[in-house]
Amino acid sequence: MDESNITFHPSEGPENISMHRNISTQEMVWEILTPLWVIMIISFLGFCENGIVLWCLCFQIKRNPFTVYITHLSIADISLLLCTFILSVEYIAGFGFSYGVYYYITTTLSIVFLLGYNTGLYLLTAISIERCLSIVYPIWYRCHRSQHQSAIVCAVLWTLSFLMTVAEHLTCKDDLTNEQFDDANHCQAVLIFTWILTFMIFIPLMILSSLILVIRIHRNSLRPHSSKLYIIIVATIIVFLIFAMPMRLLYLLNYHHRSSLLSQQNHVTIVLSTVNSSINPLVYFFVGSSKKKRFKESLKVVLSRALADGLRPRSQEVGTSLDIAETIF
């Protein structure tokens, strides 16, 4: 008899039935715990990487408009990775944060996780658009860009992300029933607006500006000291679209087709999202490091080379041209 066709029947006795249940339960537990361990390890490593980058950006590297965006992007990634690490540890340890004060802890972590995710999307779009404008309309960009534009844009995007995250949480709770038609309608309206904002505004703008950057890089029309910056932008956006977009799609569809989504699929998308937030520091390092001196240069030198703006304000360029003229004459 083929062993694959053997099944357990009630006549086989309670011992065999309990053994079969224990084996199936253990398999289900390992199927759930394995991705959680992967999430925990990746999120911890990514948290350390982004923490080092954030420390260098704040205390070691001279600030420019681009490093301001990268600083806020690192903060968003750190927030996301910290939440995934704590939640994975909580589930692996079996604390079960589902009642009382622990429920609010889990809810807060979930909100911060989504806040970091949305902010990362918005920041990447702003970075790509601004860099695209700087090479398509360089004179207009240098004349109209204010000194604190990066900080203002980051503040606006953080505010937008916070409002969208809170709106999703308040209107689209897990305990919606058929009797709560008003809440369901509000949830649907928020999800439609989120879908439009994400997939009809931010993502198309991000892809379009990235394609323009790719074309300029391919034509070698950028300065050598600024080409690394645009390579980092394009690489970061490609990584985001590959690893982070599946989670957002599944998250939005989850409210309408909750029964058709398996927990393993949710785990896979969260793993991909943690990979996206953890891989950015590696992109900065490998693009900024020299091939001949890789792993021999300090992190400060590598990040300074990778995140060099390459664009001087108009006042600095005028001052530089005057200095050159004085030197010649």
TrEMBL record:
InterPro entries: GPCR_Rhodpsn, GPCR_Rhodpsn_7TM, MRGPCRFAMILY. GO terms for molecular function: G protein-coupled receptor activity. Keywords: Cell membrane, G-protein coupled receptor, Glycoprotein, Membrane, Receptor, Transducer, Transmembrane, Transmembrane helix. It is a multi-pass membrane protein. It holds the Pfam family 7tm_1. Belongs to the G-protein coupled receptor 1 family. Residues 49-284 form the G-protein coupled receptors family 1 profile domain. GO terms for cellular component: plasma membrane. This is MAS protein. The gene is Mas1_0. It is found in: Cell membrane. The chain crosses the membrane at residues 36-59, 66-89, 101-129, 150-170, 190-217, 229-247, 267-287.
